[in-house]
């Protein structure tokens, strides 16, 4: 008998636009001691499966047909109170974001003891003892003391361990882990996945691991189910699915995953039903407005030279300077970006890599050091003429496509605004033409101009973002995690687009990412940042193959390996 | 046409069409506003023309002929012989004008202050918000009374009658701007941290353009909600100030002044002088409040179920 | 202060535990007494409370008649009209048991003439006060003063010994913010003694066992609880719900309701107060009008027209609900000098009035501002509003500026208004009082309430002469002459005489005091 | 922590100075107290003499300076009307207002929080809709009208409750009097407390409702459900506690505005508190009392703000500082 058996599950969300079928006829089994991956892109319905098993579908979602069996007992038709006694006790769940999964104003102890006592008839001291044990098992040092602390006193990884302890505290048979490591840095991710694997084996747990990350699937799961638009496309042993996918969707999905072990020129074209955008149009950019622009010296070897760059933020302000407390975000780093190359900056969250981008662009003023960009001095107040002239040739593409476009402006205005502000065009007609061309160039039709951002998907928005950046005819483009909010298939398209644009427009790129495989695909040279220091700079292949600095070694060692 | 269709298809319009309360309250509010605007056209009398009044018509009961003059009035007359229906229509005009103008005034100050505080941050932010704190220290009624007092002192005697309305507007507006400022500041801080603002800096936009072209349109939703609720509040504040004797002059009464006059006749049996203006005020404020309520829920999709 | 509140609260506690006897009277009116020091404030509610506790030499009874109080006989000496002799009542004691004698009168009159006293203006004709024996007082004035007695009806007598023992020989400097023992405590000879007081909140009085007038007056009320209730609606509600037994200042519109209540009644009487409008007829140009370079009010025809435009009948019927007496002269009917002829109301002839305005050259009308109090007189604001409509009918556009009395009256005194409402009470019951304040040219010592800018040296001389004229017939003739001039000039536009209304439970029996001062010793209970 | 408190205290002083200046400045224009202080029989010479005594002829800044000097020593001047120190008068009246405010605030908080929780948990349904709509009626009528209508109904027509005043009060300690210990005192409190608290109750109810709806959508609530916790524990322990933290701020400020708004309620119900005193003073142009009142209101606001901040610190572990190990 399987631990969990899902038969023909259908989940529907009625809305004013009609009934949305989030899960469509999905059948799945999980055995004891087995980790089953549930993989798919956003909107695939993978999380909904997990919620449906828990009986925690968000209103107005419901399950009109299908069966869920837990150890031979049908659980999808239980009363709310019966279902409640199964939740936590027989099925545990781990959420994506450890920062928000814990009640911020209760101690860890309270939350553990409360959960234990809800399901088990034990005294408070016994519950406490179990709680301390659990924390010990999930790898929290000094559990007897730390149990008295509040969630905010734990780091992200530690918090996720606490979440796991909470999910495990009444020894459930099945764990549903919904993107348990997505919010975590790569080094922490590896530890948490290791913990889940250990617990699964040692306790004979069944685990459903819901994730969008093929790397995590490859490293962790025994079997994998691939979902697309509510349907289960393919299911099988993990090795087999990754190396010999049967279905076209699975194939294109896997093809879009940046391989961690080698650099490829372009990602293969994804063969799903519809594309996020059209392929790059072929313009004769030589004669085009985009190709003209100011006479700009592109012959210098180092387009950008950064020396001893420093940036610090005030953590605690005070009228008296001596009472102020600062956080050093960039602690004096040196690097060069050569003309025409793609220079990567990689690091975990908080390493200061995004701050570097914002200091170069002048969004944040620097606190020391020098930045020379094609002969212009970028340091000092961004209002200085020299810096301003230099920065006209620097543009940036942002991480979050949902916040990087002003939702109240039409696409035409968004793309035209840089030209208006910098007076780059003479007539409205010319501007209109350029907007149309730019939208075509990034693979959106000219009809896009009349629409508003909310009418576009994340990938399309990122294309709009690129069009806007190009509208100042920049020579230097900073990409700050441009694809980390995107699904992997879309990511592949955007990365392809960036590569194409770089070639055609002879752009120099500063590419910032936490994602090592993406860095490996995109960059010529890479700098590794940690706590505001640049610990290592090397050619990409050299860095991945022969990392010098111990931190780089750890980073590369712990990145999920995904290779076909 | 395109934008009309877009507006009609929007979530807001959809939510409106599916909320009977919103439809009803919008209808009532619109009807009342329309009636107020068209008062000179639909009111049977002009109560603001003192020459047309006959004191002997005073205290006529609704739909009963007056004991002295034999005239009959649908909703009766007040102590000055003014037709209550006409007076309500004209009074509502004043109340609505005061309400709208006060809200616009508060909105302009509050939105600008909130935006500047949020965008500039640091010392500017601290100073603006400290001023807001001081303003909050003065309860709104008190602020209005003080401004009223001060303005009366400064206004030339023969202009006071006309000034009263503007003083009301300023005093209600001044006591109301803080909540606009706070909400806008909060919303603008969120917007400011969004990447489109950084993008605007990068393409060379100056602070003024960023504040007003980029951030402002994105913080208008909460402003709209506050403005709606403030409108109801302002209308009620006007009534309260009139009760305290610092409102619209009795010769050109607002709804609040009418209620103040009417409350003196509650025990004496002339209930209609109090009842009809009160009901009008209730309908007006309630419908605006209900609209504001709906708007708040509709514009905050997170709370939608 | 702390101790006082405690006493008040303890008294309240006692009251709440059922010791209230059937003779308790719960009394409410709009305002509270300002101080218990009887000489510190010359003001209505202050005197009203003092009249229960303290006594003057003579008082006006509830019908306005001057009757003996601490003096039994008085009058100017036959041989010397400059000296008045007062025979004092014997066997009178204060609430603390001390005996009353002429020393106390001597002391009290001196005290009332001192710098900080608010009563001194009433006594400024007094040259010397003597006490020939323990039961006689002689007052010498600086010239014959025919109405000296009238000025003494609110002049309360204090115990010299008590004042000295408690260090209150000096009058409380009210304006200077002084607080004295006497401002919070009282020891009089009156029918009621103070048991507790929380200003603006609750004052309690109890019948004084040793009162000299026992047997002479009904004195049926043994306890008085006095609560000021400012809001008229609340005050009426309190009466309607039976929480108070007796209220002053019943809004005219609520009289019907109170009267209709089977447990309540309203009694009324003409009040010693006339309401009128004043006009700036003296200035060359008005500040609040729209006529450039001329003063329309300076033209008698305009004033005449305005006087005719006022429909006093309608104001009485609708605004005052019959609770007023239309007036033709700015003088209450009680006052010496009043005649029916003077008080004839002008005809309400709009056409004739319009013609007069046209004749004066203002046929196209003009605009002016009317200043009005909204918390002083009965329905003051509504009367002004009605006047706005009436003036509109003869082409005068009136902007109404109604506001609290604290802001209204300074405008009259600072000559900042051209058209204003004023009410006038005459505590001396003599026309001279009116002339002094309202008719005489505005100077340092006279004419201080004359906002009309009217100035006539002849009239001024006549007014001054009244003070020392001992021949009452001649004096009355002069009064009549002055009134004739005032009426002819249409110095004021009279509206009406106010009517006083007292609302009370059926168990209370009294008549209305024309000065609005209830004297509870006269009250009887059913 | 200490520097935070010092900073707040400094800010408070600045706020008070500003309030004092504004208040004092404004009062100059409200009216002239002289005419009320002198009787009908006063001459222009009297007026001039009194103006001199009161210092009303001094330049504005001199008057403000004298006012501040006095205020620092607890001397807010002497009431023009009652001839007693203004501060004493205020303190005399304060218990009545505070008692009314406290009862109103308690009413507003208890009922508001209860209804807020109810309507947040049951987001739809006839009862919720009824509560939400009727509560709006309460805020769509001016307070004074509600008060008058309550008096009309419960005091005049039904004669159940008193229409004015505090009823009987008993002393507690040296300077406090309370109506909470007598039957008539309690009865007298009901109508004014409801009138005064109604608006705040609606406000708190709506705030609790929206905050709690927000909290109920949080991951930790979903996670609590996923652990099988009972609905009651989730709603009342996890959700309510997290809801109440932001509510404290607003509720604290509401107490301040209840005290201020008592002006109207006290006028309608003739409640012998500072609000009524203030209205009387405005009409009498009793500047020292007005100024004292305003300063007192400011001190209270500032004080309440401070207490709310401290309460926040005490309740929310996230603000208590101290990042734990790791």
TrEMBL record, chain A:
A GO CC term assigned to this protein in UniProt: plasma membrane
InterPro entries in alphabetical order: AAA+_ATPase (IPR003593), ABC_transp_ATP-bind (IPR050319), ABC_transporter-like_ATP-bd (IPR003439), ABC_transporter-like_CS (IPR017871), Oligopep_ABC_C (IPR013563), P-loop_NTPase (IPR027417)
Domain of life per record: Bacteria
Membrane topology: Peripheral membrane protein
Keywords of this entry: ATP-binding, Nucleotide-binding, Transport
Domain ABC transporter: 4-254, 304-556
Primary localization: membrane
Gene3D superfamilies hit by this protein: P-loop containing nucleotide triphosphate hydrolases (3.40.50.300)
The keyword Calcium is annotated on this UniProt entry: no
Subcellular location: Cell inner membrane
PROSITE patterns named in the record: ABC_TRANSPORTER_1, ABC_TRANSPORTER_2
GO terms under biological process: peptide transport; transmembrane transport
Entry GO MF terms: ATP binding; ATP hydrolysis activity
Similarity annotation: Belongs to the ABC transporter superfamily.
Protein's UniProt name: Peptide/nickel transport system ATP-binding protein
Organism of provenance: Aliiruegeria haliotis
From TrEMBL, chain B:
Family matches, as InterPro entries: BP-dependent_transpt_permease, MetI-like, MetI-like_sf, OppC_N
SUPFAM superfamilies, per database record: MetI-like
Transmembrane segments: 21-43, 94-119, 131-151, 163-184, 222-248, 269-291
Membrane topology, record value: Multi-pass membrane protein
Subcellular location: Cell membrane
A cellular component annotation (GO) from this entry: plasma membrane
Top-level lineage group: Bacteria
Keywords: Cell membrane, Membrane, Transmembrane, Transmembrane helix, Transport
Domain ABC transmembrane type-1: 92-292
KW Transmembrane (keyword) present: yes
Main location group: membrane
GO biological process: transmembrane transport
UniProt record similarity statement: Belongs to the binding-protein-dependent transport system permease family.
Protein name per UniProt: Peptide/nickel transport system permease protein
Automatic annotation (TrEMBL), chain C:
Domain Solute-binding protein family: 66-443
Tagged with keyword Signal: yes
PANTHER family referenced in this protein's UniProt entry, alphabetically: OLIGOPEPTIDE-BINDING PROTEIN APPA, PERIPLASMIC BINDING COMPONENT OF ABC TRANSPORTER
Source organism of the structure: Aliiruegeria haliotis
Database matches in Gene3D superfamilies: Dipeptide-binding Protein, Domain 1, Dipeptide-binding Protein, Domain 3, Periplasmic binding protein-like II
UniProt keyword annotations, A-Z: Signal, Transport
Protein name: Peptide/nickel transport system substrate-binding protein
Membership in a protein family: Belongs to the bacterial solute-binding protein 5 family.
GO biological process, one term: peptide transport
Pfam families, sorted: SBP_bac_5
UniProt signal peptide: 1-22
Keyword Signal: yes
Localization, UniProt: Periplasm
TrEMBL record, chain D:
Listed GO biological process terms: transmembrane transport
Alphabetical UniProt keywords: Cell membrane, Membrane, Transmembrane, Transmembrane helix, Transport
Any Pfam family matching the protein: BPD_transp_1
UniProt signal peptide: none
Entry membrane topology: Multi-pass membrane protein
Domain of life: Bacteria
Residue intervals of the ABC transmembrane type-1 domain: 94-308
Cell compartments where the protein resides: Cell membrane
Transmembrane residue ranges: 12-30, 100-118, 130-155, 175-199, 244-271, 291-315
Cross-referenced InterPro entries: BPD_transp_1_N, MetI-like, MetI-like_sf
One Gene Ontology cellular component annotation held by this UniProt entry: plasma membrane
Family assignment from sequence similarity: Belongs to the binding-protein-dependent transport system permease family.
Protein known as: Peptide/nickel transport system permease protein
């Amino acid at each position: 008998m399987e631990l969990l058996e899902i038969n023909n599950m259908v989940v529907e969300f009625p809305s004013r636009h009609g009934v949305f079928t989030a899960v469509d006829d999905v059948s799945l089994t999980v055995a004891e001691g087995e980790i089953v991956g549930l993989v798919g892109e956003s909107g695939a319905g993978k999380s909904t499966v997990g919620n449906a098993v828990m009986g925690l579908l968000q209103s107005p979602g419901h399950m009109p047909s299908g069966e869920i069996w837990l150890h031979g007992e049908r659980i999808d038709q239980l009363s709310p109170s019966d279902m409640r006694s199964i939740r936590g006790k027989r099925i545990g769940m781990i959420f994506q974001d450890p920062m928000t999964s814990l009640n911020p104003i209760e101690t860890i102890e309270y939350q553990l003891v409360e959960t234990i006592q809800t399901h088990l008839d034990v005294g408070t001291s016994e519950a406490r003892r179990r709680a301390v044990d659990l924390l010990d098992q999930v790898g929290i040092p000094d559990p007897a003391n730390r149990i008295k602390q509040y969630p905010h006193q734990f780091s992200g990884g530690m918090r996720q361990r606490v979440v796991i302890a909470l999910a495990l505290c009444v020894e459930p048979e099945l764990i549903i882990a919904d993107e348990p490591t997505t919010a975590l840095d790569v080094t922490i991710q590896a530890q948490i996945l290791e913990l889940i694997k250990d617990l699964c084996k040692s306790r004979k747990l069944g685990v459903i691991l819901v994730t969008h990350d093929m790397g995590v699937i490859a490293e962790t799961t025994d079997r994998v189910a691939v979902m697309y638009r509510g349907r289960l496309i393919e299911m099988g042993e993990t090795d087999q699915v990754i190396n010999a996918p049967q279905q076209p969707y699975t194939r294109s999905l896997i093809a879009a995953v940046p391989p961690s072990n080698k650099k490829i020129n372009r990602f293969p074209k994804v063969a799903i039903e519809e594309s996020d955008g059209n392929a790059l149009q072929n313009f004769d950019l030589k004669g085009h407005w985009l190709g003209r622009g100011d006479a700009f010296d592109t012959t210098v070897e180092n387009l950008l030279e950064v020396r001893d760059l420093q940036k610090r933020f005030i953590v605690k302000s005070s009228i008296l300077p001596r009472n102020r407390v600062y956080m050093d975000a960039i602690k004096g780093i040196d690097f060069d970006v050569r003309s025409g190359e793609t220079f990567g900056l990689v690091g975990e969250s908080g390493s200061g890599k995004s701050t570097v981008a914002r200091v170069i662009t002048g969004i944040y003023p620097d606190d020391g050091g020098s930045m020379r960009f094609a002969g212009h001095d970028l340091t000092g107040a961004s209002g200085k003429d020299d810096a301003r002239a230099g920065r006209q040739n620097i543009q940036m593409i942002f991480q979050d496509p949902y916040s990087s476009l002003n939702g109240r402006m039409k696409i035409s205005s968004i793309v035209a605004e840089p030209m208006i502000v910098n007076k780059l065009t003479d007539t409205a007609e010319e501007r209109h033409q350029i907007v149309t061309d730019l939208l075509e160039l990034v693979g959106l039709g000219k009809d896009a101009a009349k629409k508003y951002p909310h009418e576009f998907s994340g990938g399309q928005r990122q294309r709009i973002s690129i069009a806007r950046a190009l509208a100042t005819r920049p020579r230097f483009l900073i990409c700050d995690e441009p694809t980390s909010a995107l699904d992997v298939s879309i990511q592949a398209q955007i990365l392809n687009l960036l590569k194409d644009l770089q070639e055609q427009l002879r752009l120099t790129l500063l590419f910032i990412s936490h994602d090592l495989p993406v860095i490996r695909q995109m960059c010529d040279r890479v700098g590794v940042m940690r706590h505001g220091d640049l610990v290592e700079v090397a050619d990409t292949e050299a860095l991945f193959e022969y990392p010098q600095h111990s931190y780089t070694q750890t980073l590369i060692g712990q990145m999920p390996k995904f290779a076909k | 046409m395109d934008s009309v269709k877009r507006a009609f298809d929007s979530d807001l319009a959809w939510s409106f069409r599916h909320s009977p309360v919103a439809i009803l309250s919008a209808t009532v509010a619109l009807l009342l506003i329309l009636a107020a605007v068209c008062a000179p056209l639909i009111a049977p009398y002009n109560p603001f023309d003192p020459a047309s009044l006959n004191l002997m018509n005073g205290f006529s009961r609704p739909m009963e002929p007056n004991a002295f003059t034999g005239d009959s009035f649908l909703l009766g007359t007040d102590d000055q012989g003014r037709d209550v229906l006409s007076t309500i229509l004209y009074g509502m005009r004043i109340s609505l004008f005061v309400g709208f103008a006060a809200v616009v005034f508060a909105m302009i100050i509050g939105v600008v202050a909130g935006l500047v505080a949020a965008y500039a941050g640091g010392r500017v932010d601290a100073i603006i918000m400290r001023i807001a704190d001081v303003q909050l220290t003065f309860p709104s009624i008190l602020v209005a009374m003080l401004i009223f007092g001060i303005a009366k002192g400064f206004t030339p005697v023969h202009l006071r009658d006309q000034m009263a309305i503007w003083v009301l507007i300023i005093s209600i507006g001044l006591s109301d701007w803080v909540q606009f400022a706070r909400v806008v500041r909060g919303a603008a801080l969120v917007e400011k941290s969004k990447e489109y603002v950084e993008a605007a800096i990068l393409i060379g936009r100056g602070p003024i353009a960023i504040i007003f072209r980029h951030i402002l349109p994105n913080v208008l939703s909460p402003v709209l909600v506050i403005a709606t609720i403030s409108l109801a509040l302002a209308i009620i504040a006007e009534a309260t100030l009139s009760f305290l004797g610092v409102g619209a002059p009795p010769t050109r009464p607002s709804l609040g002044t009418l209620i103040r006059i009417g409350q003196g006749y509650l025990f004496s049996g002339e209930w209609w002088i109090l009842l009809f203006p009160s009901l009008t005020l209730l309908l007006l404020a309630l419908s605006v409040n209900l609209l504001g309520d709906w708007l708040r829920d509709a514009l905050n999709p997170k709370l939608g179920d | 202060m702390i101790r006082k509140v405690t006493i008040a609260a303890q008294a309240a506690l006692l009251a709440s535990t059922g010791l209230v006897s059937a003779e308790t009277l719960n009394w409410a009116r709009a305002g509270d007494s300002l101080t218990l020091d009887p000489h510190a404030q010359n003001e209505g509610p202050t005197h009203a409370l003092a009249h229960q506790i303290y006594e003057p030499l003579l008082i006006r009874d509830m019908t306005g008649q001057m009757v003996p109080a601490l003096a039994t006989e008085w009058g100017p000496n036959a041989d010397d009209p400059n000296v008045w002799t007062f025979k004092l009542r014997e066997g009178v004691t204060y609430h603390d048991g001390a005996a009353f004698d002429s020393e106390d009168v001597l002391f009290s009159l001196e005290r009332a003439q001192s710098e900080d006293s608010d009563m001194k203006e009433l006594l400024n004709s007094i040259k010397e006060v003597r006490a020939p024996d323990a039961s006689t007082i002689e007052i010498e004035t600086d010239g014959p003063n025919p109405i000296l007695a009238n000025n003494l009806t609110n002049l309360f007598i204090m115990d010299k010994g008590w004042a000295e023992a408690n260090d209150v020989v000096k009058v409380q400097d009210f304006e200077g913010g002084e607080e004295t023992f006497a401002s919070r405590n009282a020891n009089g000879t009156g029918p009621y003694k103070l048991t507790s007081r929380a200003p603006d909140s609750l004052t309690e009085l109890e019948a004084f066992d040793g009162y000299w007038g026992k047997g002479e007056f009904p004195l049926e009320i043994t306890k008085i609880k006095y609560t000021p209730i400012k809001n008229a609606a609340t005050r009426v509600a309190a009466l309607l719900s039976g929480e108070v037994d007796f209220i002053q200042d019943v809004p005219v519109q609520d009289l019907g309701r109170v009267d209709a209540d089977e447990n309540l009644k309203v009694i009324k009487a003409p009040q010693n107060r006339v309401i009128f409008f004043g006009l700036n007829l003296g200035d060359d140009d008005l500040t609040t009008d729209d006529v450039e370079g001329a003063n329309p009010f300076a033209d008698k025809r305009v004033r005449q027209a305005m006087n005719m435009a006022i429909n006093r009948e309608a104001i009485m019927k609708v605004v005052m609900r019959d609770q007023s007496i239309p007036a033709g002269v700015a003088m209450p009917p009680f006052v010496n000098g009043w005649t029916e002829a003077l008080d004839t109301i002008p005809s309400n002839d709009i056409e004739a009035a319009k013609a007069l305005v046209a004749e004066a050259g203002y046929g196209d009308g003009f605009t002016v501002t009317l200043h009005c109090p909204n918390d002083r007189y009965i329905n003051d604001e509504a009367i002004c509003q009605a006047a706005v409509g009436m003036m509109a009918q003869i082409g005068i556009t009136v902007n109404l500026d109604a506001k609290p009395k604290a802001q209204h009256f300074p405008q009259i005194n600072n000559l900042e208004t051209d058209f204003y409402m004023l009410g006038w009470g005459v505590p001396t019951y003599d026309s001279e009082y009116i002339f002094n304040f309202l008719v005489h040219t505005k100077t340092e010592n006279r004419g201080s309430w004359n906002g009309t800018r009217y100035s006539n040296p002849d009239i001024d001389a006549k007014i001054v002469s009244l003070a020392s004229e001992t021949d009452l017939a001649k004096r009355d003739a002069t009064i009549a002459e002055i009134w004739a001039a005032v009426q002819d000039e249409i110095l004021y536009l009279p509206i009406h005489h106010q009517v006083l209304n007292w609302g009370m439970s059926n168990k209370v029996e009294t008549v209305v005091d024309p000065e609005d001062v209830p004297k509870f010793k006269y009250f009887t209970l059913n | 922590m200490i520097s935070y408190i010092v900073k707040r205290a400094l800010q408070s002083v600045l706020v008070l100075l500003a309030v004092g200046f504004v208040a004092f400045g404004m009062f100059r224009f409200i009216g002239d107290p002289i005419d009320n202080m002198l009787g009908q029989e006063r001459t222009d010479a009297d007026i001039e003499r009194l103006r001199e005594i009161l210092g009303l002829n001094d330049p504005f800044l001199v008057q403000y300076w004298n006012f501040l000097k006095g205020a620092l020593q607890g001397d807010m001047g002497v009431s023009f009307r009652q001839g007693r120190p203004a501060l004493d008068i205020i303190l005399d009246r304060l218990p009545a207002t505070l008692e009314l405010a406290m009862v109103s605030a308690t009413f507003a908080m208890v009922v508001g929080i209860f209804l807020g929780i109810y309507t947040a948990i049951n987001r739809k349904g006839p009862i919720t809709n009824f509560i939400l709509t009727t509560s709006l009626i309460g805020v769509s009528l001016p307070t004074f009208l509600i008060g008058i209508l309550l008096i009309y109904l419960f005091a005049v027509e039904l004669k159940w409750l008193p229409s004015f005043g505090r009823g009987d009060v008993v002393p507690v300690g040296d300077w406090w009097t309370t109506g909470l210990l007598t039957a008539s005192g309690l009865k007298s409190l009901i109508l004014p407390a409801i009138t005064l608290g109604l608006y705040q109750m609606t406000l708190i109810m709506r705030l609790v409702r929206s905050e709690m709806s927000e909290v109920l959508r949080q991951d930790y609530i979903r996670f609590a459900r996923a652990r099988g916790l009972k609905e009651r524990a989730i709603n009342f322990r996890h959700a309510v506690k997290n809801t109440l933290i932001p509510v404290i701020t607003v509720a604290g400020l509401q107490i301040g505005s209840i005290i201020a708004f008592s002006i109207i309620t006290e006028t309608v119900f003739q409640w012998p508190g500072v609000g009524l005193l203030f209205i009387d003073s405005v009409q009498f142009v009793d500047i020292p009392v007005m100024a004292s009142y305003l300063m007192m209101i400011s001190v209270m606001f500032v004080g309440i703000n401070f207490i709310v901040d401290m309460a926040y610190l005490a309740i929310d572990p996230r603000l208590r500082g101290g990042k734990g190990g790791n």
